[in-house]
Amino acid sequence: MIVIWRVTTHCNLGCGYCAYDRNLPFERADVDEGTVLRMARLFSEYQSRTGATVMISWLGGEPLLWKPLASVSKMLSKELGLQLSATTNGTALKSAALRSMIADDFAELTVSVDGPAAFHDRVRRWPGGFEHLRSVVTQLRADTQSRERRLRLRVNTVLMAKNIHLFGELCEQLISWGIDEITFNQLGGNDRPEFYREHRLRPEDVETLTKMLPRLRDRLWAHGIRLSGGSQYLHRFRASASGERLRVDSCNPGKKFLFIDERGQVAPCSFTLADYDVHVDELRSVEDLMTLHSRYEQRRSHWCDDCPSTQVFEKFVA
Ligand SMILES: C[S@@+](CC[C@H](N)C(=O)[O-])C[C@H]1O[C@@H](n2cnc3c(N)ncnc32)[C@H](O)[C@@H]1O
């Protein structure tokens, strides 16, 4: 089971497409540390009882800004036997202590890079950001060489009309970073409709992507880098670009994937948080976790009539 946990809505970057852009004026929140530890014990028990591996993946805002992250991660990995992951903007990775903790305790780390230097730094409003990431990611790879377990290092990029033609160049530059995988999102429009209108992928952009992927995939694989995003995923992109709705009858909610937000709401994905009234405070036993599936199946979210959830469409399949 993969549990994505949005531990904070604080962020230190101002990405114009993101709901957590530091310039947006809304009240930010952090998750309660005690709640995370209690739920982690429950997931650990779930893991022992069912034999299923549980991976906790920290999300934000910027998750590496959440103050208890290092101590909590150590406890979850070393004492509770949970797998750990995070998606980060990478600003905090300049800290050698943080990199060392990640190399010791994480199974994977996803770093967001939205294009070659000029594009990345502009869209993330972070001068020098790309070069910073190149330096800290290669350093992190070096840090992990001596470890028993190899950290899986991934770069995720958001594709939009103005960077689609730069994706090949970005992949070429990433070859020297020591990463294992490249994944991509299409720009989503839920959070920042004004940005989306101007930058969304058009049908011709999706065709450009579809044509470039096989060659790029071979090129990267020759360097041991996997380029993810299967045919279902491209089908989702094509449908979004042309305004076609993609209905999902059931994604087997609550079985393999959970999303928890900073206030403790638990849903099958980030989009459906408001539709299922489930809070971590109600989850006290492994049985409670196991009944989530039937609770979610009782009510259908309107989001499922045009599902935007990347994992449902095989983002991680090549
Ligand atoms: C919300 S961010 C949080 C983690 C971290 N601050 C970061 O920048 O990676 C998680 C991922 O979602 C992506 N993202 C943010 N807004 C998006 C949007 N409107 N459409 C698609 N992906 C988006 C980011 O680029 C990042 O890879």
Descriptive account of the structure:
This protein has 318 residues and is an alpha/beta fold. The chain has one domain: TIM Barrel, CATH 3.20.20. Helix content is 37%, strand content 14%. It is built from 11 helices and 9 strands. The protein has helices at residues 33-50, 69-79, 96-105, 117-123, 129-144, 167-174, 193-199, 203-221, 231-242, 286-290, 292-297; strands spanning 2-6, 55-59, 83-88, 108-112, 152-159, 181-186, 226-227, 257-260, 266-267. The chain has a 9-stranded mixed beta sheet. It is globular and about 50 Å long. Bound molecules: S-adenosylmethionine. The site of S-adenosylmethionine has 17 residues, from strand 3 and strand 5.
TL;DR?
The chain is an alpha/beta fold and 318 residues long. The protein has 11 helices and 9 strands.
Say what the CATH topology is: TIM Barrel
By CATH reckoning, the class would read Alpha Beta
The chain-level mean pLDDT equals 97
How does the helix and strand content classify structurally?
alpha/beta
Can you count the beta strands?
A: 9
N-to-C span: 20 Å
Shape: globular
What is the spatial order of strands in the main beta sheet? 7-6-5-4-3-2-1-8-9
Structural domain tally: 1
CATH superfamily membership, which one? Answer: Aldolase class I
Name of the CATH architecture? Alpha-Beta Barrel
Low-confidence stretches: none
Question: How are helices and strands ordered from N to C?
Answer: EHEHEHEHHEHEHHEHEEHH
Query: How would you classify the quaternary structure?
Result: single chain
DSSP strand content? 5-15%
- State the helix count: 11
Roughly how much helix do the residues carry, as a percent range? 25-40%
